[in-house]
Design goal:
CATH class: Alpha Beta
CATH superfamily: Class I glutamine amidotransferase (GATase) domain
Largest sheet: 8 strands, mixed
Shape: globular
Distance between the termini: 13 Å
Order of helices and strands: EHEHEHHEHEEEEEEEEEH
Radius of gyration: 16 Å
Number of domains: 1
Helix content: 25-40%
Number of strands: 13
Strand order of the largest sheet: 2-1-3-4-13-12-11-8
Strand content: 25-35%
Length: about 200
């Protein structure tokens, strides 16, 4: 049972549709009870870091998420800005992040770009998993859809679950214990994204 955190940001219905086709129960979580009933949690996100953190705080779910993720140790998957919110802070904003991952979020250094490369990074990229277990089981060298100008920079290399490149190499996915995140959008990434979301639902 997967709770899709509905705090006004992210395409909840896209995730729900994928899980419906897979025969996996998933619902929009708008209350503390919704989170408590779930065995897994997905935290989507789009837009600016501070705006997303503010919306989450105003939803009344912030403390309940901490309890389920840090206390009950339920697997959680952050998507795009949802992943960035799991860090301590972001160069994009002033508010503190959730602090679930020892990391900061940084902006691409455009000085390293060549030719017509510019921000935001938008489109399909090859993604290189550091491990073919957990999220990337059965995926080999997948391609995913990205839309972002910032990326997570973990304190420890072992936190990096996958990388990609856009002018420079950057973190595409992370894991710290029961906390997972993808900078890309699996809900927009065809069969590669469907398999990743299925893998998350089947995590032991």
């Amino acid at each position: 049972m997967i709770a899709l955190v509905d705090y006004g940001l992210g395409n909840i219905e896209a995730f729900a549709n994928i899980y419906r086709r897979l025969g996996i129960e998933a619902w929009a979580a708008r209350t503390v009870d919704d989170l408590q009933r779930a065995s897994r949690i997905i935290l989507p996100g789009v837009g600016a870091f501070d705006w997303a953190m503010t919306r989450l705080q105003e939803s009344g779910l912030r403390e309940a998420l901490d309890a389920q993720v840090l206390g009950a140790k339920k697997p959680v998957l952050g998507i795009c800005v949802g992943m960035q919110m799991m860090a301590r802070s972001s160069e994009e904003g002033e508010l503190p992040g959730l602090g679930w991952i020892d990391a900061t979020v940084v902006k691409f250094d455009t000085a390293a770009f060549e030719g017509s490369t510019h921000l935001p990074h938008m489109g399909w990229n090859d993604t290189r998993p550091a491990s073919t277990e957990t999220l990337f089981s059965g995926l080999g060298m997948p391609r995913y859809y990205f839309l972002h100008s910032y990326f997570m920079q973990p304190d420890r290399e072992e936190t990096i679950l996958a990388t990609s490149s856009y002018g420079v190499a950057f973190t595409a996915a992370v894991r710290s214990g029961n906390v997972y995140g993808t900078q890309f959008h699996p809900e927009k990434s065809h069969h590669w994204g469907v398999q990743l979301l299925k893998n998350f639902a089947e995590l032991c």
